[in-house]
Amino acid sequence: MMRSFVSACLLAILTPNSSAFVVLPLVTSTSSAMSTLTPLTKTSSALGMVELVDPSYNLALGAFGVGLAAGFLEDLRDKEGEKLLTAKPFGAFSLLFTAFSLFLVFQTTTLRFGFDDDSFSLVKSNGASMEENVVVGGENKWAYSSFKNYDFLPSADFPILVYFREDQTSAENREEVPLVVDNLEGQVHFFPAISNVQQLKKGFEVHGCARAE
Question: pTM here?
Answer without folding.
Answer: 0.76
